[in-house]
Predict the structure.
Amino acid sequence: MLASIAVLGIVFWFLRKESLPLKLLGLALTAFSNWFLFYSDKLMPDILVAFSLLGAIASLYEYKFSGQTPKNHFLWAALFVAFLFFGFLAKETIILFIPLLMFYFLSDW
């Protein structure tokens, strides 16, 4: 349940600059999706993989598009690695995230 709440927290964080109806819509679409409702109360690692993947995407997004000073880039990079490590500890299906990582790697290169 804590991972489900954390997923909703990350979605809320993504939508922090949007209007209230858009925040409510984003949280409702996340919370009431079939996949989220099915796995949120189970002792299976799928919601932990969703949490770690969403956290990795959020940290990568902040790293690339926040426009902050370079000293904060280490924080976002460390969070990205921590979320990926947590995802690998939960379940190895996070390896399906590699094509997106390769896209960002090649676009940055």
